[in-house]
Amino acid sequence: MGFLPSDESERSDAVLFAERLVFGPLLFQGVVSLRRRGVLQKLLRRGGEGATLETLLGELELSRYGLTVLLEAGLAAGVLQVDDEGVYRLARVGLLFERDPMTIANLDFVADVCYRAAAHLDASLDSGEARGLRELSDEENVYQALSTLPEPAKTSWFAFDHFYSDRAFKDLVPRLSARAPKQVLDVGANTGRFACALLAADERVRVTLADLPNQLAVARRELEERGLSARAHFHPIDLLSPELSLPEGFDVIWMSQLLCCFGEEDVLRILRAAARALGPGGELWIVDTFWDRQKQRAAAVTLMGTSLYFTTVANGRGRMYDSATMLRLAQEAGLSVKSVEDSLGLGHSCIVCGSAR
Amino acid sequence: MGFLPSDESERSDAVLFAERLVFGPLLFQGVVSLRRRGVLQKLLRRGGEGATLETLLGELELSRYGLTVLLEAGLAAGVLQVDDEGVYRLARVGLLFERDPMTIANLDFVADVCYRAAAHLDASLDSGEARGLRELSDEENVYQALSTLPEPAKTSWFAFDHFYSDRAFKDLVPRLSARAPKQVLDVGANTGRFACALLAADERVRVTLADLPNQLAVARRELEERGLSARAHFHPIDLLSPELSLPEGFDVIWMSQLLCCFGEEDVLRILRAAARALGPGGELWIVDTFWDRQKQRAAAVTLMGTSLYFTTVANGRGRMYDSATMLRLAQEAGLSVKSVEDSLGLGHSCIVCGSAR
User: Fold this and answer.
1) Which of A26, A167, B264, B356 is the most buried (most CB within 10 A)?
2) Quick check: pTM over 0.90?
3) How much is the ipTM here?
4) Which of residues 254-283 of A touch B (CB under 8 A)?
5) How many CB atoms lie within 10 A of CB A196?
6) Looking at the DSSP assignment, which residues form a beta bridge with residue A321?
């Protein structure tokens, strides 16, 4: 960035880092507008040629003032570069906001689901409830609110959720199928996405979907539309119930992106219920993203940031766990850990447990 | 940060940078809570010794869950470090959030004045009005709202404003005084902070404060309390009036942190009024922060981020200008630029103009 002097000392590096963090919310909104108003796309198309403010003005629905402050916010955010002739180009980072589906899914999720809610962090910490959810819904937690979330929050929520789970399922369904389970219990089945993937891939398996009744209704529709409901059963369940019990007789109990939604005490209660329900030879497959198992620092940052979504939007109790905590809870619940496999999909791990009895 | 792998490629650097930007709003709120709930202070006191989660839990009003997600957000934000024994310490960046008054003034300003308002960026760009101000006030612009802003927004606004202007005035008052002006017109006098500094430093000078009537009332009280009102006059003025004229007969017309509050057309109109009001030998002193005149990249980032405060909170038209734009407008207004001095206070510049007639 020719117009900005390079930093001279370690302290000024720290100051730059701090100021990017402090002005992060403003720069974030600037980048959201640069993307949604098509500025990044125009610059992507022009590639190395770039474009001046005048050129862009003729092609966009923005005032001269609006385009000026957005372009300069883009410089400050590091997504744009400008040369001495006033020609703007996408920086390497800016390219990600047009080309990288993960960055885009994350951006939409933070912008539409988390941004306003995050301002309620303190109230959420004090109350133990996700006080930010009130920005989107009157429900008590996001899981009860999902089917009635306003747009664009609803679309961004599911796009974020599915972006990661779809990629994990692609790696996990063949692994599970290779074990040839006859009966699988999908705990926290949500919209039935995993059940669909497994039922479609494996003609012999039967899947029981367990979740809240309103989620099961959505999942049932999904399975029926795809002609996959013949080998599916539906088991209404409230995982927050103090007397939780899971149905028995399953070869595999499956919990994908589920336990992160709960506080440690609830995780322990759910894992104990799984341990009780497991027969001899039965296995519990815990699929989640653990920040201490990531290869990329960016992934760890993403996960630890997402924990504050659980605090302020989801239910005030969940978080993206580290695997050390999860393995300790599994042992405390009376499970024996058989294997841990990392780097499934985009950073998922799969912990396979048996009953310790 | 031992627990996080270092990045291997340029692409992963870009991804890390992008994810910090995307999760910036969540990490920002995490850092605000870490500071306001005393976690950073506890860790600062313990220095190299650091503290575990258990130790901190005993000293803070936070649940185990709350402290866990905050500490992990601090790791993700880069303000904390943790070692293999689970001992947390302040990172170099974290130190700034306890020790550096600039970082703290900026943090409070963004948290209390800008955060919620920034979510209204698109509406502000479309309407040409600061739609985010509605989060704080029913007034049309922040200048009319200042005296009635709710807390903590009011305190944080003035702390931010005064932090920069106080340091600039310290460098500028002696320079202005050395020129021995008899009559100074302080345009946009706000709370009278500059007038007080000049009147206290220079026993011969007389200052006329020009601003909106409600601001003048505040300024008058300030001057009276300090016993500085004898050589002060008060001139009510609406700088947005289409028929703006400034009173004549002043040796120096002073505009400090003023022109950034206006759009280019208004800046031109105000500068033309100044050019008309300047007598032979009279000077216009324009004091502002220009992002293209900063030595530190951090300062440029701060200023370009602050432009979005003008868009969403202040009035939907102002911005932190680059000096090239300001010099062009001065010439267009019929002024001749006599000198430009940079690096006054924390990155202010002073443009001294005479009438070109």
Assistant:
1) A26
2) yes
3) 0.94
4) 263-264
5) 21
6) none
